[in-house]
Write a structure and sequence with these properties.
heterodimer, A: alpha+beta, Uridine Diphospho-n-acetylenolpyruvylglucosamine Reductase, domain 2, five-stranded antiparallel sheet, four-stranded antiparallel sheet, 12 helices, 30% helix, globular, B: Aldehyde Oxidoreductase, domain 4, Aldehyde Oxidoreductase, domain 3, Aldehyde Oxidoreductase, domain 4, 3 domains, seven-stranded mixed sheet, five-stranded mixed sheet, 22 helices
Chain lengths: 326, 777
Amino acid sequence: MRLKKFEHFEPRTLSEACRLLKEQGDKAALIAGGTDLVVRMKYGVTQPQCLINLKKVEGLGSIALVGENLHVGALATLTQVRCSDLVLERCPMLAEAALAVGAAQLQNMGTIGGNICLEPRCWYFQQGRSWRQARPDCFKNGGSVCYMAKGSRRCHALYCGDTAAALLALGAKVRLVNPGGERIVPIEEFFVDDGMRHTDLQPGELLAEVILPAPLPGQRGTYLKYRKRGALDFPIAGVAAVMSGTTAAIARLRIAITGVGSSPLVVAPPPDYPSEAGLTPALIDLLVEMARKQTRTVSHMEVSASYRKELVGVLVRDALEKLGGA
Amino acid sequence: MSDYAVLGKRLPRVDGPVKAAGSARFTDDLSLPGMLHGKILRSPHPHARILRIDTTRAEQLPGVRAVIVGEDFGDYRYGLRADTRDEYPLARGKVRYLGEEVAAVAAVDEDTALEALELIRVDYEVLPAVTDPEEALLEGAPQLHDDKPGNISVHMKTGFGDVDEAFRQADYVREDRFYSQSVLHGFLEPNAALAHWEAPNRITIWASKQSPYFLYRNLSNCFNVPLSNVRLIQPYIGGGFGGKNGGYPVDFCAVMLSKKSGRPVKIVLTMEEVLSSHRRRHPMIVRLKTGVRKDGTILAHDCRIIADGGAGTGVGPSTIANAFYFLNLPYVVPNVRYEAFRAYTNRPISVAQRGNGIQQIRYAADVQLEMIAHDLGLDPVRIRQKNAVYTGYRTASGMNIHSCGLQETITGAVRAAEWDTHYRPWREKENEPLGRIATGVGIACNSFQSGARLTGHNCCTAVIKVHEDGTASLLTGSTDSGQGSETVLAMIVAEVLGIRLEDVFVPQTDSTVTPVDPGSFGSRVSSTAGNAVLIAARDARQQLLPVAAELLKAAPEAIEFRDCKVFVRGAPDKALRFRDLTRQTVAWGSGTSIIGQGSWGQTVPPMNFETGEGDASGAYSFGTQAAWVEVDTRTGRVTVPRMVVAHDLGFALNPLAVEGQHEGSIAGGVGHTIYEHCVEENGQNLTPNLTAYGLPTVYDLPREMVSLSIETIDPVGAFGAKESGEGTQVSTIPAIVNAIHNAIGVWITDLPVTPEKVLKALRDKKAQAKATAEGQS
């Protein structure tokens, strides 16, 4: 489980980091907290020849208001995020999601940028070298088979980032920086449903920060995570829901789900739903059904696809009932 | 019994501070000048013939000092008994499980050793594998060992009484199948060894062993050196639970690599190697048929077991015999029939794990008793009270109970669990709609051997050196693998000599210095080694007495040792300090060194593995556990918010240590019942890391754990003590499974209790109820 030799860069600015990333291309990996990358490097499933360490990039970990929006730098640790007064005041569910990641030690090291970009996982991919030698490589390790869905022509590794669900439900945007400039995109456009390449990051591009819009009047949200144990584990399913409105009527309602496919997914009520009636049992039933239908998942380890769908339904219902004050 | 000065007190463990501070040194913390690092190459196939191993390129890699393969060990095989020696230090001819050790390398650093492993070329001819024990026993199944036809590693068939007649007499008979899955020991310190071979034939090895003297004998045989030349030193151990008893490839390889390279060699397994290839608990299929009278009195058990032994026998014969012994306890079973097959499969080797075969059988038997109580409308507490064994009872198979507080443990557990307030039979609840969270309570009883009777070496010996300043050293070969025995044995010395716990030092086990000992397994240390220590301490005191009598001008019989003083009973001012006595003793007459010695073996004849007749131990512990469960009826998740352990341990030598054992039992039992499972595919373990394997965290354990000690003062154990380390984990599983039935009305007969299984069982039950209702309408 020893690491292969690699070069180590410590850029001071984002543009320097991007330039390095572009120059080094596929040979490079970005490292921030390292809680995901170093494990993969020890397993030998990711073998970068150089690491670009973002720790020294000035200001990349700041959490600050810019006008109405809350900007959370990619390098902010999950502990910083969940303890930030600004986060707790404006979108406490993001703190809830950060608190749901791994355990305290991982939250101290891991960053929000790293959690958003978390490599999709599966127990056939994330194994040591000698383990993997016992069977042909899967897609993710350069082979041509997916052990999660035998016969499949694509990789079905599961995206398991907790904070992504909260950010999707909150309608966050991400600022992506590249050597030529930058772009700001809604976070749902950032994710790609592909276990091999699950973000839209282009060569030389990196995630600099997430931008959270000002909370709407009466906004409330929650993140519910179902995992095997009370700590450490990745979600078997995670559901974030955000609702706003100062009267019984719903101004905005959005649900996001993580842990069930190669990318997180968004469930929103149909355009013509009767928002003035509020969060009625009928609407909850409808959204539960929509969430279950949209969840297209595969069996993994001892969790069957149908059980995972079932869980999504339960979590969506619980989240909505919690928001509705039931 | 309350007049003990040291015993019975809640004293913190003597090894607590160094472990808490992180300064306790484990095997991996040690190094020697010139030390090399070893790594092991493992089989990528569950079953294959080794055609050729080419180590040339590995040997040529700069920094590599030795490469070894199976042939280096000649024909040496090891195992529990002469007829079960089926394990090689490194594979010979065939590999029989994925992860089996094939070759090993020693190099100047770990990186070089790892690189060298990749340069070893092994040509295999892949053979069909069998990973299911039932399939392994079928005709035509792939065969693992040429000399063990039919893949039968152990077969035991026995019976006592007239089972058929009992079934004819029975008012009610039921038969069920139970399955207990593959779980791991879960120790946090991986297996490790640091070995130093000194030519021509001297071995020094530091190894993580809960029973070091197995390896001491193994090494003597393997390397053909006298036992006096095998020095095995035992550093602190990061848990064992049965997975660090014997010698393993890591130990043999470290010695052989040292012999070949002429340098000390350390091998520390990775957690991945431990979890995927090291030993584990026997998975078992238990088919149990039980006949009762309509009042719940058990008349007979007929039990058939198929145990998955993996690729070797290990301590399998004892596992299979234990399952039989504890089919007979803790309830009165007048007639019993038993047949067990331990099958070879292409899986890592199954061995003892905290309970060694007894969890599996008691899970089946105690859940089935609950089923019977439910079927017959009997109260679960009363059916256990009715069948409970008692002092003076002798099982049909000839086990003799000399002390038994089972009834008291039932009463105690029921009271602590507020059973009467919380328990409502499922029958009363079954027509009520299930809420989102359904709650239930369950109870189960246990029994265990207090020091397993062995066929071979049973005896524990203790040597106590009394220093002139009034302190003492206790030399014992009984190893503290984390259970706290070092503290408890030191307390016995302190009690007898009338000194303080901190005045007694227990050095690490060192086979050159400490007396030979069977080891820490079968719940033997406090009771068996405890007696040896008690005798040794009395011997030391006896040697001090004449001097004390002379100095105090009193009769030796009138002298007491207590509070670091020696005084005349009834005249406490006729006293002298213990250290003054010891100092004067050194100079007394021609001068005397006080060295007390004591040995204690077994009070019962050797066990019979063939028939299971006779005693499995000189004493038996008894206990009862009660569990609360909450079942989320929408997700199927089961949590255990509260659990009670009431245990007849004879006498609580250190109640604080007992509580630790009880809490550990709950943790282990909850893990086995709900969380842990080696998930495998074609003989490959998919859970070789602690994230995937899923040991419960502190969040997953009961928020409230109640520990009750029932003291019956056993006639055999030291100060009346019996075991309290393994028996307590025997009934954790059935207590939880019974509570689940009480909460939602389904029986889980297939472990672990995964949420998905619970949900499916709930669905099936609903569908069945609907079908029944439709059939009736």
